[in-house]
Design a protein that fits this description.
The protein is of the alpha/beta class and about 280 residues long. Helices cover about 30% and strands about 15% of the residues. The strands form two sheets. Strands 2-5-8-6-9-10 form a six-stranded mixed beta sheet, with helices on both faces. Strands 1-3-4-7 form a four-stranded antiparallel beta sheet. Helix 3 crosses helix 4.
Length: about 280
């Protein structure tokens, strides 16, 4: 059997289209949870703990990924039940020496890893930044560290990135934090309480500072005042009846007063939150 040049080209195009479509067909049906889904399978990872973190009590958590997108070519995954805090790494072709740790949002119910994580990581990497998307544990899932659980993982992640700076060709003094929604609360909390003693040091990385060079909380939750707080995030972080002291402790806008004037203008570029002499990451160096 002989094939004309036109028929050969047509068959090649069909084969290419088939190969491009196959990965999308393997995705779970939108809205259907998939357990143990390898969200970082094709992405370099940096573990913040090295192993599963044990919970003091309750049923074992199972990491679950819920695909919410109705478009098979676009992912919108929400992850919950995280027991292995880790970072997905986006490395640029030409590093500019700076890095950004990204904390996706999700109302502390889950972590929206695509829209507020991977998409931002790819965007930053295309511009020379090394990006680290943090999979942090959720405070409402029974951890002994309670409302400090996301801050524990954020502090540890920032110190670990700084400790491994040479491996990623970055300047340890040029590591910023960026977060969205509830992840913006993690980002702002890290900026305000980077020096808070919220976990027991485990290795040499924990001797380093967790202070980010700069912070960009994007449409963040910055107060636990019930009059202005996001109700769902507040309840999952603090519980149904928090004390005023607990509310104040987890309100970055109260911990760093100059943020009141600058926190609301989260610009699409990284910037210092303020330039005041206050005990937070936005204070001048």
């Amino acid at each position: 059997m002989t094939l004309s040049r036109r028929a050969l080209v047509a068959r090649s195009l069909v084969a290419s289209a088939w190969a491009a479509a196959r990965p999308a067909w393997g995705r779970p049906h939108p809205g259907r949870a998939k357990r143990h889904a390898p969200v970082c399978r094709n992405r370099p990872r940096l573990s913040t703990c090295g192993q599963m973190v044990p919970r003091p009590s309750g049923h074992p958590l199972v990491e679950t990924v819920n695909e919410r997108s109705s478009d098979r070519l676009v992912t919108d995954r929400a992850v919950m039940g995280i027991t292995r805090p880790r970072m997905a790494v986006f490395r640029p072709d030409r590093p500019n020496g700076a890095a950004v740790m990204i904390t996706p949002g999700g109302g502390y119910r889950w972590i929206v890893v695509d829209k507020e994580g991977y998409e931002i990581g790819r965007w930053l990497a295309a511009r020379g930044f090394t990006a680290f998307v943090l999979f942090y544990r959720l405070p409402g899932e029974g951890w002994s560290s309670g409302p400090d659980t996301p801050l524990v993982d954020a502090q540890r992640a920032m110190r670990l990135v700084r400790h491994r700076a040479r491996d990623f060709a970055i300047d340890p003094e040029r590591i910023a934090a960026m977060g969205f929604s509830a992840g913006g609360h993690v980002c702002a909390d890290l900026a305000a309480r980077f020096a808070a003693n919220v976990y027991t040091p485990r290795d040499a990385a924990d001797a380093l500072s967790a202070r980010p060079h700069s912070a960009a909380p994007i449409y963040p939750v910055v107060s636990m005042d019930p009059a202005i707080a996001h109700a769902g995030s507040r309840q999952l972080l603090l519980g149904p009846k928090p004390t005023p002291a607990l509310e104040a402790a987890h309100s970055p806008i109260a911990a760093c007063p100059p943020m009141r004037r600058r926190i609301s203008c989260a610009m699409p570029r990284m910037t210092r939150l303020c330039r005041w002499k206050t005990p937070c990451a936005c204070a001048p160096r």
